[in-house]
Specification:
Helix content: 25-40%
CATH class of the largest domain: Alpha Beta
Mean pLDDT: 94
Bound molecules: 5-amino-5-deoxy-1-O-phosphono-D-mannitol
Largest sheet: 8 strands, antiparallel
Number of helices: 19
Radius of gyration: 25 Å
CATH superfamily of the largest domain: Aminohydrolase, N-terminal nucleophile (Ntn) domain
CATH topology of the largest domain: Glutamine Phosphoribosylpyrophosphate, subunit 1, domain 1
Number of domains: 3
Structural class: alpha/beta
């Protein structure tokens, strides 16, 4: 949700910033803008739409006007104010000396705005961000912080409420970039005589792998001679250094048409990396476990909280965790969780699942759970993000950077990680013998190979996707663990192909949704194994025959050799036989490919679907 990059060094700031914005565009693409300190002035350009529009504008106005080695940029996901030129960042004060870029929402902006209007300031945009530029300018030009850029920023951020990452440049302080964060991400990149700030390490990974994670309510001042981290009171503060463990190629398309396809193909590796190292000396081990085995033994209820695909990964995991631990598991949309007064206490384990680790709904749910004394275990794909920082234990999914807005490899990795949590609970509580835990783990370990086999058959799914591109709607049906897979398939199609898509528990069909079935309506059915879940299988065969009789075009994902389902499938997609609880790790893949292919055939940008952003840092 908005990408930010700032730079102080010896290279062309414009080039570094634009390159960073290209890698951050997944965070928002409603508009883009840059500011570069050029001698004693500030060169600023902004443009609505994709980054490409800004690049074209820069070519028109002349990139020579942006000569300088200090600068910053922004790619926007609009919150306050429509996605038009004048609402694009950077925003400036009335003298055009101070500029700011922002990710987040300033909740007290109306009060700040009327205060500024009372001082005679005419706002040039509809944004909350612009108020900050004016406030810093006032602080810098008068009063007790006059002439002190850093103190001026500090004074203003202390007045702000809500969520913000802010980066400032000031033409009167040409060698300095100042940044501050609360509830929105910001990392510092440490190069040789050059320093970066960005929403995500992807922005500077081409220049350095050395990074520093800024904590809550911290500020950082970058100059060519170093960086200083303080708290909002101006006291020196600790920030955690880390080395990025992936390289530039992971953040590039590597010859693929779009990131999502690359990420779909990376799923075997994402799964293997997520499992690696989590079974040692005959035991499941988590990553940063600040929970003891006794804490895990004391757990009497599990909540999984998450949004979107991460929520679906929780729905899948519920079947496994309940089966292995005999603990009740509730899976809840993070955005609903804290508004319904859930029953939580210190024996409740809350598993917060988030690829980005910065989803505001999930973060607030985590805070609510901790305030109620529940233990929180984060499952996260982003090292050092806010959700794991605020949790009692962390299990990282090692899916690598996911750039496509639609979650693919992160989703599979989340299922695997949630399963590890289930096995760790079963182990601590003794509901599974050690050899049973080991067997489940080894079955999981065999899944990357099964995923690879499914990937070898996706051309058939692509061809089907092109055939379905003109459909008005698609329904998805499943039972047991196939039900959340159906929900995930529908979500993928909605977000990528802008098509009406719904996932149902197949048994519910007869209670209403069957009325939607009409001639030629594509219905995708996720079949359980005929051997593993014979009863469910035969029920689903009946469901398919019911919808086929009413004219639906049936697309059936079924285990290889499942002959009973063949007569009912207008299109049969075969997947390898795997243990029932693990089937979602492979049955999801054709649905990802189907959605991407339909979206491509309809002419849409698969990596950047309309109205969406990868990280949703507003509630
Ligand atoms: O970063 P998170 O895992 O917390 O994100 C949660 C959802 O916003 C995310 O899974 C979203 O639903 C995906 N775009 C779906 O493909």
């Amino acid at each position: 949700m908005c990408g930010i990059v700032g730079y102080v060094g010896h290279q062309s700031a414009l080039d570094v910033v634009l390159d960073g914005l290209r890698r951050l565009e997944y965070r928002g693409y409603d508009s883009a803008g840059v500011a570069v300190v050029t001698g004693e002035d500030l060169a600023v350009e902004r443009k609505a739409g994709r980054l490409q529009n800004l690049e074209t504008l820069l070519d028109e106005v002349g990139r020579d006007n942006f000569a300088g080695t200090v600068g910053m940029g922004h790619t926007r996901w609009a919150t306050h104010g429509a996605p038009i030129d004048r609402n694009s960042h950077p925003h400036r004060d009335t003298t055009n000396r101070v500029a700011v870029v922002h990710n987040g929402i300033i909740e007290n902006f109306l009060a700040l705005r009327s205060e500024l209007e009372g001082l005679g300031v005419e706002m040039a945009s509809d944004t909350d961000t612009e108020t900050v530029a004016h406030l810093v300018s006032f602080a810098y030009n008068e009063g007790d912080t006059k002439g002190d850029f850093v103190a001026s920023v500090r004074k203003v951020v202390n007045r702000l409420e809500g969520a913000f990452t802010l980066v400032f440049t000031n033409a009167d302080e040409p060698d300095t970039v100042v940044a501050a964060r609360r509830n929105s991400p910001l990392v510092v990149g440490v190069g040789e005589d050059e320093y970066f700030v960005a929403s995500d390490v992807a922005a500077f990974i081409a220049h350095t792998k050395q990074a520093v994670e800024l904590g809550q309510d911290q500020m950082v001042v970058l100059t060519r001679s170093g960086y200083q981290v303080t708290d909002f009171a101006g006291e020196p503060a600790e920030a955690k250094p880390f080395t990025v463990n992936w390289d530039l190629s992971a953040a590039e398309k590597g010859g693929h048409e779009y990131f999502m396809l690359k990420e779909i193909e990376e799923q075997p590796e994402a799964l293997a990396n997520t499992l690696r190292g989590h079974f040692a000396n005959g035991r499941i081990v988590l990553d940063e476990q600040r929970l003891s085995d006794q804490d895990l033994r004391d757990v009497d209820k599990v909540f999984v909280i998450a949004c979107g695909s991460a929520y679906h990964s929780g729905l899948v995991a519920k079947y496994a965790i309940e089966h292995w631990t005999r603990l009740p598991v509730e899976v809840e949309l993070a955005s609903e969780f804290r508004y319904r007064d859930p029953v939580l206490d210190r024996d409740t384990l809350v598993v917060a699942v988030s690829q980005s680790g910065e989803t505001a709904d999930t973060l607030e749910a985590v805070r609510h759970a901790r305030a109620q004394k529940a233990r929180v275990l984060a499952v996260c794909n982003t090292n050092g993000a806010q959700i794991p920082r605020e949790s009692d234990a962390v299990l990282y999914t090692h899916a690598g950077p996911e750039i496509g807005v639609a979650s693919t490899k992160a989703f599979l990795a989340q299922i695997a990680a949630n399963y590890l949590v289930g096995l760790a609970l079963a182990q601590a509580r003794g509901t599974k013998y050690p050899d049973e835990v080991a067997r489940e783990f080894h079955e999981l370990e065999a899944m990357p190979e099964a995923v690879q086999r499914v990937l070898g058959t996706i051309d058939q799914v692509k061809a089907l996707g092109r055939e379905l591109a003109d459909s008005k709607a698609v329904l998805f049906l499943g039972r047991h663990v196939g039900y959340p897979v159906a929900l995930e398939g529908a979500l993928k199609l909605k977000e990528l192909a802008y098509m009406h898509a719904e996932g149902f528990a197949a048994g519910e069909l007869k209670h209403g949704p069957i009325a939607l079935i009409e001639e030629n309506l594509p219905v995708v059915v996720v079949m359980p194994s005929p051997k593993g879940r014979a009863v469910l299988h035969s029920k689903l065969v009946s469901n398919i025959s019911e919808i086929q009789a009413r004219g639906a075009r049936t697309i059936v994902i079924a285990e290889e050799g499942d002959e009973t389902v063949r007569p009912f499938a207008d299109h049969l997609i075969e997947i390898p036989a795997v243990p029932t609880l693990l089937q979602p790790l492979i049955s999801t893949i054709p649905l990802q490919v189907l959605a991407a292919e339909i979206a491509t055939a309809r002419g849409y940008d698969v990596d950047k679907p309309r109205n969406l952003a990868k990280s949703v840092t507003v509630e």
